Amino acid sequence: MPRVPEPLPPPLQGAPFGVAAAGGLGISRARLRASDLDAPHHGVRALRGRALSPWELAVPLLGEHRYFGGATAAHLWGCPLPAHAAAVVHIVDPRRAPRHADVEGHRASSIDRVVERSGVRVTDPPSTWLALARVLELDDLVACGDHLVHDPPQLDPADPWRPHTTIAVIAARMEGYRGRGIRVAREALALLSTAAESRPESHLRLLLLRAGMTDVLVNPEILDERGRFIARSDLVFLAEKVAVEYDGDQHRTSLAQYEHDRVRQQRMREAGWAIVDVRARALYGDPQGVVRRVRRALGR
């Protein structure tokens, strides 16, 4: 019968830990090779079977001077990243870029400011966004920027400190910066919205703007003829009373949300509004078809 490894001391039970820290607590090399431990990175151990994210497994690599940057910092700020951008962990060291398997090391940038988020050191939202400008396409950079500057009408108890930054603060951080990605950052900055609420909604808005529909409003309140609140809608053309809404998976993931949206849209239609629903397949598979549908609704 396999021997059960002896329990680790309490400081090493809750999260991944460094081998050096374990040695300081008197843990033997043999114990660090036991079957209940994984080695996600060189010099790091974690209890096997725990569902941890890549950044959590890399926390012991940070040490005193390092911090998370790039897409890893963006993930910690909740940015809606494309799948390919989160493939590796990004760690910044002001002195020398770290080298570890599954870690992309970076030297510190002149624009970096470091704060604490989720208990770890990360680049602040403006410097995180400018780091993303080096690797993301324009539309995804705008979507991440929209998330960071979003000023919600109602605060989310899970993340009450919104907005994470402002367009003005990002613009000030960019002054005098000439690093890689600055051109796409300048273009994206002019397209940011404090009202956009999701990555597809940002992409849909950009699609309509490029089609010349520059009078589109983002998530405004819709009122009836007596000034009473009817609803809020994703993208709105007030003059034509047309609303364009991204229809996500709420009908499959939340029956309550689905029913709420049905009632809300019915109230809008009763008030004379036309609604153009856009699904992911259309937005990403036939964007010009979406443009034609919206133009027909607008009579343009």
From TrEMBL:
Every DUF559 domain range: 234-297
Pfam families: DUF559
SUPFAM superfamilies according to UniProt: Restriction endonuclease-like (SSF52980)
Gene3D superfamilies cross-referenced by the UniProt entry: VSR Endonuclease (3.40.960.10)
UniProt protein name: DUF559 domain-containing protein
